[in-house]
Design a protein that fits this description.
Layout: H1 10-19, H2 24-47, H3 56-72, H4 82-97
Length: 103
């Protein structure tokens, strides 16, 4: 994702992140992925099925990347800013729950 400003902080990154998530279906797929990650982690910790941790990236990134490739038609920020992208996913998820972002 080309950045308009240097992204030296998450505050610099997040506006570009939101611009890369304008398609509603893409946002919904991100919401689905984060929800799956949370449910999977709760299940793993409740049951002790630690091998299921291997499914966490698939559950989270699978729907999100499909949203980027098929609906948004852009490159996921995960490839260029993995940590900020992960934080952005959870921030957008929280903002959706708070009604700050339509999903």
């Amino acid at each position: 994702m080309p950045a308009a400003v240097p992204q030296t902080s998450f505050a610099d990154f997040y506006p570009d992140y939101l611009r890369a998530h304008q398609n509603r279906t893409n946002r919904r797929l991100h919401f689905l992925g984060i929800t799956l990650v949370i449910l999977l982690l709760v299940t793993i910790f409740a049951t002790g099925a630690w091998a299921w941790l291997l499914l966490v990236p698939v559950a989270g990134y699978g729907p999100a990347w499909a949203g980027h490739f098929y609906f948004e038609r852009n490159r996921p920020a995960t490839f260029s800013h993995p940590l900020y992208s992960l934080i952005g996913d959870f921030r957008m998820y929280a903002d959706a729950w708070r009604g700050k972002i339509r999903f």
